[in-house]
Amino acid sequence: MKGMAALSLAVFGFLVPTVQPLPAVVETLGTRKREASADITIDTPEGEIIVNDTKMKFITVPEGYDNKTRPGPSAPDVDCSIHVLKLGPFLEKDMLFPISYYFACNWTDTRLKVPDNHTFAYVDESAGSVWKPLPHPVPMSDTIIREEFVEPPLVIAGGTVYMLKKYTFNAPCVMKLYSFPHDQQFCNVPIMMRGGVKASWGAMMYWPVQDQPILMNMQAFRSVFRVEYLEFISWAGSTLSPKETCIYQKGYCDYGGSEDCHTTSLRCTEAENQNKSECINCSFFGGKCKTYQTPNCSSVLQKVDEFGIYWTNLELRLKLTRRLGYHILNSYIPSMSVVGMSWVSFWIDPSSAPARTGLGVTTVLTMVTLSGKVGGAPELNYIRAIDVWMLTCKLFVILALLEYACVNFTALTQKRKVEQMPEVDVERQTKKEVGQDLDLYDCDEKKPPPKFSVSTLTAEKVNRSVDHVSRVAFPAAFAIFVCAYFSFYLADSP
Questions:
Q1: Which of 135, 236, 433, 471 has its CA 20 to 30 A from that of 446?
Q2: What is the rounded CA–CA span in Å between residue 84 and residue 364?
Q3: Which segments does the entry list as coiled coil (predicted)?
C-alpha cells in the first residue's frame, strides 16, 4: 500500500489538482544524485527513482515480446476510469459539446516483469511498444479527436499495466428541443474498446477520490445545463449480429450536490485552495453511485475477438436539465414587459392617433427584435416552446394595435355619416317626445340652441366601451396563457 500511494503521488499527481503541493519534476542523468524534496531523491544507477523509499525504474520491452497478441488466450479484463476536465458548452445549433478527459485503464500482462526490489517501473518503448487496448471515442463519427499519451505505460509487480491518455474532441448529442428552454437532454459519450478485451468501469488509484469510476471537475463545467445524474454502462455487441448486444455492467451516479461547486466562492484553480476539501470534492466530483444487476453475457463475451467482429464498449450517459435563469432574464421578462406596455394604449384617448399608433408600432417592432435574440437553432421541423411563447406575445401586441385600428375605423366611419346627415337638436327632440312646450324654455331666442349628433355620441360611447373591455380582457387572456404555458411545459418535461 505504501508503494501504491507513492506511485499515485509521484507519477500521476502532477496531472490533476491534489491535496498537497507537488514536488518539481525531476530527471535522471549520468550518475548524479540530488535532493528533489523531502520524499523524492534520484539515484541514477540504471535510472532509478526513489519515492518515499519505494524504488521505480525504466524497463525495456522483453525480447520476443509480441505487441500484436493480447495477453492470455481469452479477452483480458480491462478496467477503466475517466476524469472529465472540461465539459460544455452545449451547442444547440450544431448539436455538439466539447469534452476533454483523462482516460486511465489497467490490465494484467504477465509477460512484463518488474525487477526485484522494485514495486513498479515505467516501460521504455523507444525500441518497441507493449500491447495496449485500442480505445476509440465516439465511433461512427467524423469528429476530430485529439489523443495524447500522458505517460508511458507503467507496470506494477505482478504484471498489472497502467495506461493514461487524454482525449479532447467535440462529441455529438442529438437534442430534442420540443420543450426548449424547459427541456432535459440525454447525451452520451461512447468509447469503443478494440483489441479483443472485456472493458469495464472501475475505480482507479490515480485520483484522490478512489471509489468512483467517473470523476468530473464541476467548476470547469461550462453550460446552461446542470447534471442531474450520469450512468456508466459496459456492453458487448457486433454489427453483424445486433440482437446479441448484451449489457454486462450498469451503474448510476446521482449528481444532486454538484450545484454547490458553482456557488462556492473558492477559486479552486489557485494553489492556495487546492488542498481544501471543498475544492478537492469539486475537482473530483463523483456523486453518489450504485450499480445494477445485469444479465449474464458470457456467451457474447466469449466471441470478443481481436479483429473487431465482436467488441466491447464503455458508455457514459448524462442527464442534463437546462437552467432557466438566462431565459427568464433575457426572454420571458422582457417579452412580458413589452406586452404589458402595449396595453397602455387602452388608457390613451382614442382621438390621440399619433400617440396610440406610435406606441403600438414600437411594441410590435420590439417583440420582433426580442424574437431574434432567443438564440440560434438548428433547422427543425417542429415548433419549440420558446417559439410558442414569442409568437403568442407578438400576437398580443399586434392585437393591441389592431384594437386601436378598429376603434379609429369606427370613429371615422361615423364621422362620414354625420357629415352626410342633418344635425338634430337633441334637447328639442327629447322635449317633443314628452309633450312639453318648447317656447316656455326658449328664453333667449337670439342664441340658437346647442345641437349634437346622436351618431357622434353613439360612436364615442362604443369606442370608449371597447377600450374599457380591452383593459380587462387583454390582461386576463394573457394571464391565462402564461399559466397554461408554464403548466404544460413544466409538467411535460421528461
A1: 433
A2: 46
A3: none
DSSP 365-431: HHHHHHHHTS------SS--HHHHHHHHHHHHHHHHHHHHHHHHHHHHHHHHHHHHS--B-HHHHHH
0.85 exceeded by pTM: no
pLDDT digits (tens, 9 = 90+) for 426-444: 555 555 555 554 444 444 4
85 and 217 both lie in a single domain: yes
Distance of CA 408 to the CA centre of its chain: 50
With CA atoms as reference, report the closest residue to 248 among 100, 69, 75.
Answer: 75
Contact 125, 181 (CB under 8 A): no
Q: Using CA atoms, how far apart are residues 282 and 216, in angstroms rounded to an integer?
A: 8
Residues 129 and 205 in one domain: yes
Q: What is the pLDDT of residues 272-297, one digit of tens each?
A: 888 888 888 888 998 899 999 999 99
**How crowded is the C-beta side of 277, counted as CA atoms within 13 Å?**
0
Residue 72 CA neighbour count, 13 Å, CB half: 15
Q: Return the C-alpha cell found at 220.
A: 470547469
In the three-class reduction of DSSP (H, G, I as helix; E, B as strand; rest coil), residue 131 is classed as coil
